[in-house]
Structure prediction request, 535 residues.
Amino acid sequence: MNSLDTIHAELAGISTFPGVASEVFGRDHPTEPGLRVAWAQSVDAPQVCDDCLDRKVALLFDSPHARRSTIRPEELDGIVSQSASRGIGLAVTNIDVAQSWSLLAPWPDCRRCEPAITHLVAPAPTANAGDDDGAVSGNGLPRRGTARDFASRHRGLFGFASVMLNPSFDDAGGLYTVDTGIFLGTPTAYAPVGGKGDTIDQALASCVGEGIERYYIATRARPSRTEPIRSFADASWRDAKDFTGATIPVDPEALIEVRTLEPLDGLEPMTLPESLVRAPYTPPSAGVVVPTASSTTGAAAGGTIGEATLQGIFELLERDAFWFAARTGLPLVSVDPNPVSELLASVRRLHDVDVVLRWIPNPLSLPIAHCVLAGRKANPMAARGMGVSPSPAHALRKSILEAIQMWRSLATGVDVDPSETDMRSLWWSGRARERFPAFFGDTESAREISHWGSDLGPVAAEETLDALVDHAACCGLRFARAVLADEPGHSVVRCASDRILPLDDLYFPFLHRFDEWERVSGHEAIVDYRGPLFM
Prediction:
């Protein structure tokens, strides 16, 4: 999709606010004539500080990409001026790189710029916000507003100076995936961010939501404190291991940063190390140690705190099931493919793959679907995806969408070397077929399962959340959350359970979650795969 066309199309859909003044600024490349960055913000919005701006412009100017102009300087000025008149500060460059426009967002951990994040969202819905284009999300649950509204209001979050690179799109038989990335601090290092959906608006909204989530989880939050680690002698996260399998050395008298999370059952609060809330995590001072490895599992964004919390809990339960199944070879349950038969036929035809769908039996009896796309003889590559929803059909569909997204990512051949932190090489090379036979349908459980939640119907996210929290409590699970953002356009939370942490038993030897799985499933918790499980 042409970036310039995208910019103009989005700006045309956002209302102009009369009387909003702005001043256009610019900076020329120090050694390359004709290459330029232009930016403008509404004068009544918090202005991004010079340090953040310098850092982001330097990222762009240091980019190793081709040095050629793609937009005329006067076009740059016109775009940022139009955007500022709509209450959105933009930065645009004419350098031919993937990231060609952006909001002037604060850098994570810049306290001076922190208030500016609230002004990065269009203050009013677009003219098309009332269209019935996707009020139901990818997991089958109603959301506040439509996907188009969410994507348009947050469209400026793409770009070099803020959260994400401009996205690339793919349409696979009516299923859309969107991929981009977030800069981590250098021109070449960025975290991948993606989205998927049945429409381009849903895919883009999904991608924007993940980008917002990644931004806030990397931003230092205020309500935390330091305590000696000896105060947590019985904590399940003590004596954690890193991604190499080595125990993280922590002196018993060392100080760690901790945060108290809000319990969703209204009972006793849950206190966790800040390293299990933020990712990546950097301690606030040299005297504070990092006691655990972490991941983004359990972090989620949504239109409301309830939507984000439900999504975060679903992700925890999904990963919890995958970790046990992958580590121990848990036999999976066959799936009736009829609800997604047309989609399966399309995927097989377009990608020339075999599709293996299975249910992962789990302690909460949720519909947790696992999908494998397995390349045929000419292409041994395979990809996987998961979906969880009170609706079995939506869980299946989401697992297929996620597998397509991963197939596309692996097909680039990027980051497919063996790694201590991810398993992409196993799937790209096809060796996953030998390592995880149950995922490919080679071993199967004959048991029949009944799914919890299918009788809930299309209720609001908050109602589903309340029902799920009560159901989990009956199964011995408590959930808590840290609210990382609660803005008019979006909310971000980090969820955790007393029995499900952002990593599995191999990283938290005192968690003993696999023992609970063994008691419920009857499958021995013997770990036969000790490698990484992230993709």
